[in-house]
Design brief:
By secondary structure, the protein is α+β, with helices and mostly antiparallel strands. It is built from 3 helices and 4 strands. The chain has a 4-stranded mixed sheet with strand order 1-4-2-3.
Length: 133
């Protein structure tokens, strides 16, 4: 999908300012995915590992809908710790490359005081669009 990038703006790193969606297709909206496994268990309290688990859950759900990371048009991240996020940059980057590859959809990151499950350090919401063939 074409990204929105005014020529006089600095190129963002790890996201895009916006995308355009044109034509018929199918919208996919995912609930926030956390860093738990398929049964809801948390195997790590490490932010980077939880982000990786959340991204894997997202890819699995998109596949269920016949979509992939290239169809993501928006990510909203809820993070419980700025310092944990900053310290986990390398592992988050590795998890991103493994799951989303070179796709950098518009993203919003929010630091919040907590999530419903106190073991969760991250929750990621996704909106995707699959154009009609």
């Amino acid at each position: 999908m074409p990204t929105l990038q005014p020529s006089d703006w600095r190129q963002p790193r790890g996201f895009s300012h916006g995308v355009t969606v044109d034509g018929p297709g199918r919208w996919i909206v995912l609930a926030g995915q956390t860093g738990s496994d398929e049964q809801g268990a948390y195997t790590s309290d490490d932010m980077g590992q939880q982000v990786g688990a959340a991204l894997h859950r997202i890819i699995r759900l998109l596949a269920e809908a016949g979509a992939g990371p290239e169809h993501i048009v928006r990510l909203t991240w809820y993070l419980t710790s700025r310092s944990d996020y900053e310290a986990s940059g390398a592992s988050i980057g590795a998890a991103w490359r493994e799951t989303l590859g070179r796709n950098f959809p518009p993203s919003t990151l929010l630091y919040i005081s907590g999530l419903v499950d106190p073991r969760a350090k991250v929750e990621i919401e996704v909106t995707a669009f699959v154009p009609s063939a």
